[in-house]
Design goal:
The protein has 257 residues and is mainly α. The protein is built from 11 helices and no strands. The chain has helices at 2-25, 37-48, 51-84, 88-99, 108-115, 119-143, 147-155, 160-198, 203-212, 216-244, 249-252. Helix 8 (160-198) runs antiparallel to helix 10. The longest helix has 39 residues, at 160-198. The two termini are 25 Å apart. The relative contact order is 0.12. Residues 57-237 form the ABC transmembrane type-1 domain. Belongs to the binding-protein-dependent transport system permease family. Pfam families: BPD_transp_1. It is a multi-pass membrane protein.
């Protein structure tokens, strides 16, 4: 089954690349606006041989990784505290529902005013966007804890930390891993967006320079790199999720009768 899926995926990619080569060659779109796949591949090879490209990639990954770590840490802690402290969930519900829908890109002017084009501007946007992905999942995970298991743990004299470790955390962990996977993708999107709009060092800024200088094949090559980066991050997040939840029935594929 996996071999068949891989073959179908490869065939779909080959068709996509073939269309990318044929459409501009046939004159359906102008080559200066959408170059053929072969020209993009040549531009990509040129980027890979440029030291400035690797520096920009490192800047993007730095902003992504730092922002993701901060967002996950803050989201897990805040989610557990909000969920387990009596009445705190009700007290913060309206505030969370107000802040969560605010688009992170709307904070770009604030980030520029505070930090200019520094890394801290990227981190502000990345952390804000990724934080909510983790927080909401943690809250849902804690709310899914079986009250019977919670009462049983209390009856056996388990303290707060022991109940969190042995009852709450195993239940919430699948939700946490889902939040981390979503946050990883969102963090990359905001990292590149911040670089593109603000001009902070990274792949986004390099894409903006290529666009303004009419280096269209190089621009598309850099866009391809961001897509591949997102694919690798998603695959890595899923791999970590499978390892962390190896004991969970959703990973083991068990069916409860």
């Amino acid at each position: 089954m996996r071999g068949a899926n891989a073959a179908l995926g490869a065939a779909g990619l080959a068709v996509f690349l073939g269309l990318g080569e044929a459409v501009p060659r046939l004159g359906l779109v102008r080559e200066e606006h959408f170059p053929p796949t072969s020209r993009i591949a040549v531009a990509l090879a040129g980027e890979l041989g440029d030291g400035a490209f690797w520096s920009a990639l490192g800047d993007t990954l730095t902003g992504w990784a730092l922002g993701l770590v901060l967002a996950v840490g803050a989201g897990v802690v805040a989610g557990v505290v909000v969920s387990v402290v009596p009445y705190l969930r009700q007290a913060t519900a309206s505030t969370i529902e107000f802040l969560r829908p605010i688009p992170s890109v709307a904070l770009i002017p604030l980030a520029v005013l505070l930090y200019g084009t520094e890394l801290r501007s990227v981190l502000l946007l990345v952390v804000y966007a990724a934080f909510w992905q983790v927080l909401i999942q943690v809250i849902h995970g804690v709310q899914d804890v079986d009250p019977v298991a919670e009462d049983t743990a209390r009856s056996f004299g388990l303290g707060t930390w022991a109940r969190i470790r042995h009852v709450l955390w195993p239940t919430a962990l699948p939700y946490v891993m889902t939040g981390v996977r979503l946050a990883a993708a969102v963090a990359l999107i905001l990292s590149v967006t911040a670089e593109l709009v603000i001009g902070a060092p990274g792949l986004g800024a390099r894409i903006a320079v290529a666009q303004t200088s009419q280096a269209v094949p190089e621009m598309y090559a850099l866009i391809v790199v961001t897509g591949l980066l997102g694919l690798l991050i998603n695959a890595g997040a899923r791999s970590v999720e499978r390892r962390a939840l190896a004991w969970h029935q959703s990973v083991r594929g068990e069916v409860v009768v």
